[in-house]
Design brief:
Layout lengths: L5 H23 L4 H13 L3 H14 L4 H13 L3 H14 L4 H13 L3 H14 L4 H13 L3 H14 L4 H13 L3 H14 L4 H13 L3 H14 L4 H13 L3 H14 L4 H15 L6
Length: 291
């Protein structure tokens, strides 16, 4: 039998302390919808979503008009990546309680995961109309605005998130993305640097910082950023391709070839990587040929 780690033991003990009184209630009355709901809430908080789904479903079988139970079913389904089912659950909860900001936010998350960005934006707006104090929802709104190429609005939303929580690395990164897409390279660089001050292990921020530095013509610094990104996330094909593109600009064709080859190992069907590999081979064989 595998020996339980201290962390696993503490988690088990914490779960026992939370769930034991709920289980006692359910032994006395298995049709106690509130107890099933409390169990679902506790399990969802522990990210035990399959069990949370089972408990919220049981609660709804007993009391099908409980908005909080529908919301917690949505939370569990979202955690299980069953986005369409999560959306249906959030919708049921909102029908019962139209004023639940968290349910609107959850609906937005499900819609965003399904690529329905305009609908997600509407849901986030509904959530924020009810409660403007949640920095993470402002950040999520900024993310869908970036997806919709509404970059000025994305900066406004991410700035609001940062005002509420200056240490929200995601919000800083989203602000940087929008600034980059608006051609505001210097501002974007500052945002990505702030992201990395908060979370130095954010590979996407190192990658984005590298892209900005390429735009600014500081190639050695950009290469350093791409290298840091690959050390954190070595399986991101886009980083390897852009690293290769940069190395070609720096007349380092053999190093560029190695980057494109790494990209192709990860994704053999990447046309951009094959194209870059071809360019690298041409310039290795004909060093004086212009790029």
């Amino acid at each position: 039998m595998k020996k339980m780690s201290f962390k696993e033991f503490m988690l088990l003990e914490e779960n026992k302390s939370i769930l034991e009184p709920i289980e006692k209630r359910l032994k006395l009355n298995e049709n106690d919808s509130e107890a099933w709901l409390n169990k679902a809430i506790a399990l969802n908080k522990k990210e035990q979503y399959a069990e949370g789904l089972s408990s919220s479903t049981k609660s709804l079988e007993i009391d099908p008009v409980n908005a909080l139970a529908w919301k917690n079913k949505g939370i569990a389904l979202l955690g299980l990546k069953k986005f369409n089912e999560a959306l249906l659950s959030y919708n049921e909860g909102i029908k019962i309680d139209f004023s639940d900001a968290e349910a609107w936010a959850g609906k937005g998350m499900a819609l965003a995961e399904m690529g329905m960005y305009e609908e997600a934006l509407n849901s986030y707006n509904a959530s924020l109309d009810l409660d403007k104090s949640k920095s993470d929802i402002w950040a999520k709104k900024s993310k869908v605005l970036n997806e919709l190429a509404m970059y000025d609005e994305a900066i406004t939303s991410s700035t609001k998130a940062i005002d509420l929580n200056p240490f929200d690395a995601t919000a800083w990164s989203l602000k940087g993305n929008a600034q980059y897409n608006l051609g505001k390279s210097a501002d974007a660089l500052k945002s990505f640097e702030r992201t990395l001050e908060i979370n130095p292990l954010e590979s996407s921020a190192w990658y984005s910082k590298g892209l900005v530095q390429v735009e600014m013509g500081v190639y050695e610094a950009a290469l350093d950023s791409f290298d840091k990104a690959t050390k954190i996330d070595s399986r991101n094909v886009a980083i390897w391709i852009n690293r290769g593109n940069l190395l070609l600009k720096m007349n380092r064709s053999e190093d560029a070839l190695a980057s494109y080859q790494k990209a192709l190992e990860l994704n053999p069907s990447s046309s951009a990587a094959w194209y870059g590999k071809g360019l690298s081979l041409i310039h290795i064989s004909e060093p004086t040929r212009p790029y």
